[in-house]
Amino acid sequence: MNPVAKFLVVTGLVLVVVGLLWQVGGRFFPLGRLPGDIAIEKENVRFYFPIVSSLVISLVLSLLLTVLGRFWR
Question: Can you point out the beta strands (E) in the chain?
Answer without folding.
Answer: 38-41, 46-49
